[in-house]
Structures are given as structure tokens and as C-alpha cells.
Design goal:
Layout (H helix, E strand, L loop, with lengths): L1 H13 L6 E9 L18 E10 L2 E2 L2 E6 L5 H20 L6 H15 L6 E6 L8 E3 L15 E9 L5 E11 L2 E4 L8 E2 L1
Parallel strand pairs: 4-10
Antiparallel strand pairs: 1-2, 2-3, 2-4, 5-6, 5-7, 7-8, 8-9
Length: 195
């Protein structure tokens, strides 16, 4: 019930910011699939819940994901989150108008290799537009395109660390490419929320 309330608060808070509504809301509890979390799952202390949501603004979608933990964040979950956000920032720093998707993909994968001594990392960058996920430009399993980033392009960068039994720990935000680089436009604090 509290998670439904958190999702409802998200929807109620995006409307005053100018959003028309929401594009998607998915919730995973523990190891459940966020697209089909099932019913009757009871959360326990230190369970990790993933909320993945997107608003619709002037006909365009956004995509943001955050984790909520009951009681306190387990240390290993915090470490995984910190690694994911470090790789996410490396991806953001690599994006400039005129930079190729292939170059940003290369930089993201180099950041992953650097941190892989601590844990595996899976970065994804995809466009956001009239659909939440149109095409991937950062992906460790796909050949990157030589197309380039352009000013005012809206995109999503998400980075995940496989983390049994919680499927994955990570962070996801929506960005815009500006003349001087890549700027985050989603306003949620980049952290794990504790309830």
C-alpha cells in the first residue's frame, strides 16, 4: 500500500511541474520483475524496492528509476549504487554535441572495466521522445552507431549492477544535450530512499 502511495505521490507531483500525466510506472519488490511484480509480496526490513516511472511533458516521455529500502540501506547495496552512479557520471561527461555514440559507448565501457574489479556494471543509454525507449546508443552488447549527439537531444542514461536477490541495483535519469555538455533534467535526488 505504501508503494502505491509513493507512486501516486510521483504522479501528483509531476502535474504541477507541467506534466500531462505519466507514461509508465513499474514496481519491483525484492527479486520480482518490475513489469509484473505479482501480488501478495510482503516487504521485510532491508528489502530493496525499485520504482521506475516516467512523466509525459508536452507530448514527450521521461524515464527515471530509484530504489526505496525499508529500515536502512545494506552496505553492499550502497556500494553497488555508488559504483552505478560513478559509471553514470562517466557516461554523462562523455556526451557533447558532435561526439559520436560509438565514442560515448567506448568511454562508458572503459569506466565499467575500471570498476569491474569491484563488481560487474551494465550501462545503457537510450533516446527518449514520443516513446520512452526509442533506440540505444550506449549498450555493452550492441555495436554503437557513428551518429553524433546533437544539441537539444533528450536521452536517458541508466546503469545497473547485477545484485541477487534484488535483480539489479542502479540509477536512471533523463538528460538533455546542451551546447556545453549533458545536463540532467530529472529532479529527483540521486540516492536510495529510506522508508
Amino acid at each position: 500500500m505504501k508503494l502505491r502511495l509513493a507512486a501516486s505521490k510521483f504522479v501528483l507531483n509531476v502535474i504541477p511541474e507541467g506534466a500531462f500525466g505519466w507514461d509508465h510506472t513499474t514496481i519491483s519488490v525484492g527479486s520480482s520483475d518490475p513489469e509484473a511484480p505479482g501480488k501478495g509480496i510482503k516487504m521485510k526490513g532491508n528489502d530493496v524496492v525499485r520504482l521506475d516511472m516516467g512523466a509525459i511533458y508536452k507530448g514527450y516521455c521521461s524515464d527515471v528509476s530509484r530504489h526505496v529500502v525499508l529500515d536502512e540501506v545494506p552496505q553492499k547495496v550502497r556500494e553497488a549504487f555508488d559504483v552505478a552512479t560513478e559509471v553514470q557520471q562517466a557516461c554523462v561527461d562523455a556526451i557533447q554535441p558532435g561526439t559520436s555514440f560509438a565514442e560515448s559507448n567506448k568511454i562508458a565501457l572503459e569506466a565499467c572495466r575500471k570498476l569491474s574489479r569491484r563488481m560487474p556494471v551494465f550501462p545503457i543509454g537510450h533516446s527518449v521522445g514520443i516513446q520512452t525507449e526509442e533506440f540505444h546508443f550506449i549498450h555493452p552488447l550492441q555495436k554503437a552507431s557513428d551518429r553524433t549527439y546533437r544539441e537539444n537531444m533528450v536521452l536517458d542514461i541508466e546503469v545497473w549492477v547485477p545484485f541477487p536477490p534484488f535483480r539489479a541495483i542502479g540509477n536512471e535519469d533523463t538528460y538533455i544535450v546542451t551546447r556545453s555538455g549533458c545536463k540532467r533534467i530529472s529532479k529527483l535526488e540521486q540516492d536510495i530512499f529510506v522508508k
